[in-house]
Each structure stands twice: as C-alpha cells, then as structure tokens.
Amino acid sequence: MRVLCLVTLCAFLCACSLWPKSAPQLNIQITAASYLNPTAGQAKPLRISFYQLKSGFSFMNESYGSLIQSNTLGDALLDKTTIEIRPGQTRNLTLKLQSNTLYLGVIGHYARINHADWRKLSSINTASPPTLFINANTDSLSIKKTHHFWSRL
Predict the structure, then answer these.
(1) Sorting pLDDT into bands at 50, 70 and 90, what band is 153?
(2) Strands of 9-88, DSSP E
(3) What is the model's pLDDT at position 17?
(4) Chain center to CA of 68
(5) Which CATH number does 22-147 carry?
(6) pLDDT (tens digit, 9 = 90+) per residue, 99-151?
(7) pLDDT tens-digit series, residues 50-76
(8) Which residue(s) pair with 84 in the sheet?
(9) Residue 16 pLDDT more than 70?
(10) How far apart are CA 139 and CA 118, in angstroms?
C-alpha cells in the first residue's frame, strides 16, 4: 500500500512539470488627458503603439517615420501592439511578454508629431514585470513604473 501511495505521489509531482509555465504579463494603465492630441482646437483620440524589444538603441535613435515602417527595428522587435484611447479615458491593457523582452518602447501617434514628446522607453524584467502607468498628455507621453512588493519575495 505504501509503495502504491509513493508511486501515485511521484506521478502527480512529475505531471506538474509537464505543463508549460504561463508567459509573463505586463499590466499597463493608460490615462488620457481631456485635451488629448488637439487638432483644429478639438481633442482627438490617440493611437499608442507598444513595442517589445531586445534592444532599445534603434528605437531611441530612429525617426518617427522610420519607426512606423514595419522592418526598421529588425531582430530587436519581438512584438507590437497598437491601441486607441479617447480624450479623458482610462484604459487597462495586459501584454503577454515574449521571454526575451528587455525593453518596452511606447509611441504616441500625435497629430502634431513634430511638436510632441511622442516616444518613451522602459526597461522590463520579465522575471518580475512591473506595472506601468502611462499618461497620454496633450502632446506628450510619460511613464511611471511600480514594482509589486510580493514579486520580490
């Protein structure tokens, strides 16, 4: 009887290792200003693109026009997600992180791109992803990162 219990216990423990670990997730809260992305004096929705990157160098050094081309970032680009946010809206987004993501690049596609602070880069630790809080202001983006206490235990 003891042998049977021991064999059953071992089978259950081994079976647990057969299921793959779930991909790490990055939680993002985006808050838009009420006077967002103004065009002709009226607030307009803003498209925001999130780039999962192996390296942030090209992302920070390329022009806006180059970055919106699909192949500019080459092997550094792991994944891209684009959303739209309306003036005054708060939106939550969860990204499934690629295992080799080291940076998250964020682009705000502002109507007056030459007068906007449209690009931000944040380092990401996939073993312990932070929560990002992004403010989409009238003509600029800002990112604040918060680490969870329990993720450091």
Answers:
(1) very low
(2) 25-32, 46-53, 77-85
(3) 54
(4) 17
(5) 2.60.40.4150
(6) 999 999 999 999 999 999 999 999 999 888 999 999 999 999 999 999 765 54
(7) 999 999 999 999 999 999 987 899 999
(8) 47
(9) no
(10) 7
pLDDT level of residue 3 (50, 70, 90 thresholds)? low
Sign of the alpha-carbon dihedral angle for 15, 17, 20, 23: positive
Name residue 128's amino acid: S
Angle CA 71–47–38, to nearest 5 = 130
CA distances from 70 to 4, 21, 97 (A): 58, 30, 19
114: which residues sit within 8 A by CB, 6+ positions away? none
Nearest to 118 by CA among 126, 107, 127, 129: 107
Question: Which of 87-111 are b and which e, b meaning 16 or more Cβ less than 10 Å from the residue's Cβ?
Answer: bebebebebebbeebbbbbbbbbbe
- In the chain, the DSSP E strands lie at 25-32, 46-53, 77-85, 90-96, 103-108, 119-123, 131-136, 141-146
Q: Tokens 């929560």 map to which residue?
A: 131
Cα–Cα distance, 76 to 63 (Å, whole number): 16
Span 16-44, mean pLDDT? 87
Q: Are 136 and 123 in contact (CB under 8 A)?
A: no
